[in-house]
Every structure is written in structure tokens, then in C-alpha cells.
């Protein structure tokens, strides 16, 4: 009877030691996962700040683009009106117009207002596309980190509320990044010579 009790005691001690070892190993794994989760949260915060900065710069770019279009359109209207006045004046003074034509022939060719506006418009569209690509790239990175953070939090660890909010923001930003529109969009008068973005 005593031998059986000793055997049961030794078996219990062995199982208890094994259980404690497993507990310590699991505790180590949980601590490592918590460190990784905290690191991912910090990366998500940094990436979110970068994404918001990129979107703010994109909005500023669109605003500058609209202002530039307004200025170009106003300049074109002014040049058109002044050209019409010069034409009317030349009809009243044909001899002076001939002398002016001779002087114009001696001057170097200057790009037309339409060519200047098209060139500026192409440069602005190129910059806009570059910012659009940057915003899409940041949105994809944000979604990828959110998914990795969500998968690591499934092992009985409670992630911070910020990671959940960031994951929701990543899903929304990924959907909207493919069709970015300026925040301060407004109707801009389109001149008849406006260059197509195709």
C-alpha cells in the first residue's frame, strides 16, 4: 500500500513538473507575441501618420492644381480680350499694323498660351499620378500590417483598440485609394482648349 502511494506521488510530481514546464514555455511564447504585437502597433501608427501626410499633400496638390487652372483660364481670357482689341485697332490703323507685323517677324517664336497651359497641365497631372501611386502603396502596406496584426492576436492576447481602429481605416483607405478625389474639390471653369488627361 505504501509502495503504491509512493508511486502515485512520484507520478503526480512528474506530471506537475511537466505541466509547469509547459506553462513556462507558453508564457514565454505569449510574451514574445505581445512584444511582436506591440511592435506591429508602433509600425501601424507610423504608417498611418505617413499615409495621412501623403493624403494631406495630395489635397494640397489638388488645390494648387485647381488654382493653377483658374489662373490659366483667367490669363487666357485676358489675352483673348486684348487680342480682340488689338485686332479692332489694326482695322482702324492698317499702316501701323504692317509695321507691327514686321517687328513680330523679327522676334523669336513664343509658345502660344494654349501650348503653355497644356505643358503645365501635363506636369501637374504627372505629379498627381505620382502622389496617387504613393497613396495606394501606403494603403496596401497599411492593410498588410493590419492583417498580420490581426492574425497574431488570435492566441488569447487582447490587442489594443488602436490596432482595431487602424485595421478598419486600412480597409476603408484601400477602397478609396483607387479613386482618390481632392478634399476641397470645386467646380473649375474648363476652357475650350483644356488638355485631356487620356
UniProtKB/TrEMBL annotation:
Compositional bias of kind Low complexity: 149-177
Protein origin, superkingdom: Eukaryota
Record-given protein name: Uncharacterized protein
Region (Disordered): 79-114, 149-198
Sequence ranges of Polar residues compositional bias: 178-188
Organism from which the protein derives: Phascolomyces articulosus
Amino acid at each position: 500500500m505504501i509502495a503504491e502511494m509512493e508511486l502515485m506521488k512520484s507520478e503526480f510530481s512528474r506530471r506537475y513538473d511537466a505541466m509547469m514546464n509547459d506553462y513556462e514555455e507558453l508564457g514565454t511564447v505569449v510574451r514574445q507575441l505581445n512584444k511582436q504585437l506591440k511592435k506591429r502597433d508602433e509600425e501601424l501608427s507610423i504608417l498611418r501618420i505617413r499615409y495621412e501626410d501623403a493624403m494631406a499633400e495630395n489635397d494640397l496638390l489638388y488645390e494648387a492644381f485647381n488654382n493653377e487652372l483658374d489662373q490659366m483660364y483667367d490669363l487666357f481670357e485676358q489675352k483673348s480680350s486684348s487680342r480682340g482689341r488689338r485686332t479692332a485697332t489694326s482695322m482702324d490703323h492698317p499702316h501701323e499694323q504692317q509695321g507691327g507685323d514686321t517687328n513680330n517677324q523679327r522676334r523669336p517664336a513664343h509658345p502660344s498660351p494654349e501650348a503653355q497651359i497644356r505643358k503645365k497641365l501635363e506636369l501637374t497631372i504627372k505629379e498627381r499620378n505620382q502622389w496617387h501611386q504613393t497613396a495606394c502603396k501606403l494603403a496596401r502596406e497599411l492593410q498588410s500590417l493590419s492583417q498580420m496584426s490581426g492574425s497574431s492576436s488570435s492566441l488569447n492576447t487582447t490587442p489594443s483598440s488602436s490596432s482595431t481602429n487602424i485595421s478598419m481605416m486600412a480597409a476603408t483607405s484601400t477602397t478609396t485609394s483607387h479613386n482618390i478625389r481632392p478634399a476641397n474639390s470645386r467646380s473649375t471653369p474648363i476652357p475650350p482648349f483644356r488638355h485631356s488627361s487620356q
